[in-house]
Design goal:
Distance between the termini: 56 Å
Low-confidence stretches: none
Strand order of the largest sheet: 3-4-5
Largest sheet: 3 strands, parallel
Structural class: mainly alpha
Oligomer: single chain
Mean pLDDT: 86
Order of helices and strands: HHHHHHHHHEHEHEHEHEH
Shape: globular
Number of strands: 5
Length: about 300
Amino acid sequence: MDYLRYYLNCLLPLAAIAGFLLGDQWVWLGIGTLPLLLLADALSPQDYAPRNIKNGALADVVIYVQMLLVLATFAAFGWRAHVGFDPALGNLQPWIASAAALIWVGLGANVGAAHELMHRHNPLAAFIGKLGFGIIGAPNRDISHTVTHHLYFDTERDFDTARRGESVYRFVPRCIWGNTVDEFEFERRRLAAQGLAIGLPHGSEAEQQAAQRIAAGIGAAAQVWPRLDLGRLADRLAGCAGVIGVDSGLSHIAVALDLPHVQLYNFDTAWRTGPHAAHQRSVVGMPCPGLEAVWQAWQQVRG
C-alpha cells in the first residue's frame, strides 16, 4: 500500500481520458472525480505513519507515468474537440465539462508531479516538469520558486507558502500575482546588470493598464511610454538597444530597423513571419516561451 497510494493519483487523468474518448455525457467523468476525492478525503482518517519504501525506482516511476497521463489528457481533449461533441449536449455543456476536467487534472494530478521533476538535476526530468507547469500557463514557475521560495521560505517574501489561517481563495491569487512580479523583478535585475532599462509601449487603454502593472512590478528600470502614433513610435524604437516582442507590427518595425530582436510565438509560424537576420531570433513555446529561452536568445542577438 505504501507504493500503491502514489499510483492512485493516476486515476484522475485516466478518468478524464476515458471521458473524452467515450464522448456523450461521459465528458463529465474527468471533473466527476473531484467530489469523489473530496468525499474520500473527508471520510479517511489522518495518516502520519512513516512510509516503508525500499525500492526507490518503483516509487519514482509513477511521477513520470503521471506526467505522461496528464499530457495524454490534453491530447484526448484535442482529439475529442476535433471529431466533435454529442450535439445533444448543446453548444456550451461539453466545453464547460472539458474545461473543468482539464483544470482539475492540470492542478490535481499535474502540479505535484511537475514540482517534483522541476527540482531534479536530470535535464530531461527538469524539462518534463517545466512542460507540466507550461500546460497550466506557468512555464517560468521554476524561476520564482527557486529564487524566492527557497531563499525566503515561510516569510512575508514567500508567495508559495500559505499563511496560517489563509484560505485557498486568498492564497492562490496572492501566489500567482507575487510569483509573476518576482519573475519580472528577476528579469529586471538581469537587464540592469547589462545597463539596460525596459520600455513598455501600448496602443490601447487595456494595454496601458497592463504596462503600468508590469512597470510597477519591475520598478525604476521600467518605463511606460506615452501613447504614440506609428511614426513617432518607430523613431523611439530606432533609439533602442533592441526589441523583444510578439509577432506584431512593432516587431516587424524592429526587423525593418535592423535592431537586435527576439520575436515570441506561442504557435510555430516563425518559419513564415519570423526574422531571419543573424542578430534576430524567433522563440517558440506553448502556451508561451519560457523566460530562460527568451533570455538566451536575447544574449545571442546582443552579441
